[in-house]
Specification:
20% helix; alpha+beta; 159 residues
Length: 159
């Protein structure tokens, strides 16, 4: 009886090991609003109006060619955006747990965009790549908006 039970347990453990999904042990400390604002190259509220697929999935291609181009219509800008529209690069959550996540067309976001990868490699384009970024849906950004409220704001019609 004990041998049969041990055999069943062994089979279950092996099956779980071979058929389990990838899991990640990730954690990070999201910076406070003043630090996030200081480190970001652009901070704005925008509505996603278009998402363009990456040009390639080739891992040897330049990073910008492997990322989605997310186009925003700007409603309010605190820093770094002077046009009514801007394109921000995103991996749309494909890089695992350290990836920021996916933008959704038609949704409004408070965006803290950078010009570097999480490892510090400079980028030509604005990007939101790292999960510890404060970027969020506007509906969930009340704390940030209160703290940003005292800063210089540019507003365009439409949002």
């Amino acid at each position: 009886m004990r041998i049969a039970t041990l055999l069943r347990i062994t089979i279950l453990v092996l099956a779980a090991a071979f058929y389990s999904h990838n899991t990640y042990a990730c954690s990070c400390i999201t910076p406070e609003v003043p630090q996030a604002f200081s480190e970001a190259r652009a901070v704005f509220i925008g509505e996603v109006i278009d998402i363009v697929e990456p040009r390639t999935n080739n891992p040897k291609a330049p990073l910008a060619d492997r990322l989605y181009a997310v186009k925003f219509r700007i409603g309010r800008s605190w820093k770094g955006v002077t046009n009514q529209e801007v394109v921000v690069l995103s991996d749309q959550g494909r890089a695992g747990c350290f990836s920021w996540g996916s933008f959704v067309k038609g949704q409004r976001y408070l965006v803290y965009a950078e010009r570097r990868t999480p490892s510090g490699v400079p980028l030509r384009n604005l990007a939101v790549l790292f999960s510890c970024n404060r970027t969020t849906l506007v509906a969930a950004a009340s704390e940030d908006l209160k703290k940003l409220g005292g800063l210089r704001v540019k507003t365009w019609n439409g949002i």
